[in-house]
Write a structure and sequence with these properties.
Elements lengths: L1 E5 L3 H12 L3 E5 L3 H8 L10 H10 L3 E4 L3 H4 L4 E4 L14 H13 L4 E5 L7 H16 L5 E5 L9 H6 L3 E5 L3 H10 L1 H4 L4 E5 L1 H32 L3 H9 L20 H14 L5 H13 L2 H10 L7 E5 L14 H11 L3 E5 L4 H8 L4 E2 L12 E4 L11 H7 L4 E4 L6 H6 L3 E3 L4
Parallel strand pairs: 1-2, 1-4, 2-3, 4-5, 5-6, 7-8, 9-10, 9-12, 10-11, 12-13, 13-14
Length: about 425
Amino acid sequence: MNIAIVGTGYVGLVTGACFAEIGVDVTCVDVDASKIGKLKQGIIPIYEPGLKELVLRNKDAGRLHFTTDLCTCLDSVQVIFSAVGTPPDEDGSADLKYVLQVARTIGRNMTDYKLVVTKSTVPVGTARKVRAAIQEELDRRGLSLDFDVASNPEFLKEGTAVADFMSPDRVVVGVESERSRELMTRLYKPFVMQNFRVIFMDIPSAEMTKYAANSMLATRISFMNDIANLCELVGADVNMVRAGIGSDTRIGRKFLYAGCGYGGSCFPKDVKALIKTAEQNGYTMRVLQAVEDVNERQKGILFDKFMSAMGDNVGGATVALWGLSFKPETDDMREAPALVLIAKLLAVGCKVRVYDPVAMDECRRRIGDSVYYATDHYDALLDADALMLVTEWKTFRMPAWPVVKRTMRRPLIIDGRNIYDARELGEAGFEYHCIGK
C-alpha cells in the first residue's frame, strides 16, 4: 500500500517511519523545504529516541520518501494522513487553517478515490469541515469523485513515541463507510496480527476520544498537585497518599505523581481546546477549567518555595536549573514549567544557570542568552544559591552530593519532581524542599 503523510513533526515523522518499517511505501510531505532537505540527508529535525535509526533504515530501503509537494505523489497514494499542526488560537480553540489547507490541496488535485485521514488532534466536527473543503474544490473543478474522510487520533508519548506506535495500547479509527474501514483494516493488519486493539467507531467519537484521554491524564496530574499542596499545609506526605490511593485498582498508580506542573505540545493545548469546544456548544467544562487553573499556578510553585527559603535576599542570587524540557527524553519545551520559572527568576534579578541533556539549543532558540548554558549539570551549580530540579532526567537521579555541596554557595535544593530522599540530603547538610510534604 502507498500512503502519504502531510506534516513531519513528531506525529507525522513517527507515523511515516513506523508505517514504512512494516512495509508500507510512505511519502512524507512538508512545506518546510529546509526540513525536507535535512530529512533527505538523514538529518532528523527532532529528538526522539529510536527515530533516527528508523528513518535512516527505511529511507535507505526505499520505503520512506520526502517531498515538499503533495501533488507529486497524490496520484500514486490511496491514503493521505494529515498530521499538520493545530496550534491554539488566542481564544484557546484549535487553529485548523493548516488542516483545511491540506484538504483543499487534495480537492484541487485528486483524480481518483482517496481516503483522507486526520491524524492531528482536532476538535469534534473537523472531519466534516475537511469533507466540505474537499467537496468545494471538486465542485469548482466540475468533478464528481468519490472520497472518504476518517479520524485516526494519535496517542504517542514524546520520549517513547516509536515504541508507542509499534506496540500501541489501542488504535482508534473513526470511519463513515465500509470502504474506508476496509482500507484502515488493511493498513493496521500487521498490528492486529500482534493482538493489538483496533477500535472502530464513528468519526465524532474518535475525535472526542483524543481530547478526552489527554484531559483525563491532565486532570489526574492537577488533582495530585492540588492534593500535594494541601498535604504541605496539613503535615501529610503526598508520596504516602499516592501509594495509598494508587493501590486501589479503580484508580491505579499512573499519572499520580505530584510536581511542578505539566507542559508539552498536547495537554495544555488539548485542555484549552476542549474547554473552548464546550463553550461553543453552550456548555462549561468546570472540572477542566480547574485543571488548567491548578496547572498554571503549579508552574510557579518552585519559585514560591525559593522566595520563601531566601527571604529578601534574592537580588543577585544565582540559581541552577536541572532540566529544561517539559519531560525527560525529549527536547520539547512547549509550555514547559522551566520557561515560567526562568522568567520569574530573571524578573527578580537572579542569575540563572541551566543544564539539560538535549534541550539546550531549544532553550537558546526560545530565550536567547538571558541565562548561562552550562557544559554539564555540575557546571550549572557553580556558586549557586539554590538548585531547582525541574525535569527528572536519569542523569540527575544520583549526583555526587559532596561535589554538589562543594560547588554551590548555599546548599539549598528545591526538588520539583520528588526524586530525592529528604533524609539523605538532610544528613548531608542540605536544606531540602520538595512538593507535597
